[in-house]
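Below is a filled-in request sheet from our internal design queue. Each sheet records the structural input a requester submitted and the sequence that came back. We keep these sheets so that new team members can see what a complete request looks like end to end.

REQUESTER: design group, bay 2
PRIORITY: normal
MODE: inverse folding
CHAIN LENGTH: 212
BACKBONE (tokenized):
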């Protein structure tokens, strides 16, 4: 798995405010949107394009446009929804599918409770959105699901990752031939004994939408 930690002052600035326990939900949502847009710029460096010729007001010019099939954005519910609009700023024509996955707080293993995706994703580039790569089980399961549907390249975009989660994903996907990339704002120190990232930023879903 190719791992890219986005080292940029604006990314670090926005992430610092997200970490602050005093940041309220409206501000947290806005900054998540802005931060994901910055991460998307890096995550889409390998998005597929094709040549196209256009007429400028002065002369013909050669350029590129996104190649079919359209990229697919897959937020993992519920927290991944808070990242969707930030990615759509730069990929407005991408299609969107949804995966509902939840972590069992006792076993720390993921379970899928909903999905809204085409049965055939052959040849599609997918961008998986999940704010926290903690234990890694949810992201591994999501990527394996997309590979089983035919995706040919997958990039995961996360705000934060823990070393244990990265190691778990790499181990789980060791036999998968599809290229997988991870783009994150930071890799934190560790997981605590209940599977939360340290220092992290708390429960991203709760901070985005409130405790339910």
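RETURNED SEQUENCE:
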């Amino acid at each position: 798995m190719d791992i890219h930690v986005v080292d940029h002052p604006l990314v670090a600035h926005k992430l610092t405010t997200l970490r602050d326990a005093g940041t309220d939900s409206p501000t947290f949502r806005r900054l998540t949107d802005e931060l994901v847009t910055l991460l998307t710029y890096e995550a889409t460096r390998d998005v597929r394009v094709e040549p196209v010729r256009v007429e400028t007001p002065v002369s013909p010019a050669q350029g590129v446009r996104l190649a079919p099939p359209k990229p697919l954005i897959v937020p993992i519910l519920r927290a991944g929804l808070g990242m969707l609009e930030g990615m759509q700023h730069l990929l407005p024509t991408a299609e969107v599918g949804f995966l509902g996955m939840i972590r069992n707080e006792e076993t720390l293993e993921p379970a899928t409770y909903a999905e809204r995706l085409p049965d055939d994703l052959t040849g599609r580039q997918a961008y998986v959105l999940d704010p926290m790569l903690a234990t890694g089980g949810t992201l591994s399961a999501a990527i394996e699901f997309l590979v089983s549907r035919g995706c040919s390249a997958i990039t995961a975009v996360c705000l934060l990752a823990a070393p244990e989660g990265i190691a778990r994903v790499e181990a789980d996907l060791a036999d998968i031939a599809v290229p997988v990339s991870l783009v994150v704002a930071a890799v934190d120190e560790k997981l605590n004994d209940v599977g939360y990232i340290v220092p992290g930023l708390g429960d991203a879903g709760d901070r985005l939408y409130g405790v339910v």
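SHEET NOTES:
- The two ends are 34 Å apart (CA to CA).
- The first helix runs from residue 9 to 19.
FILED BY: M.R.
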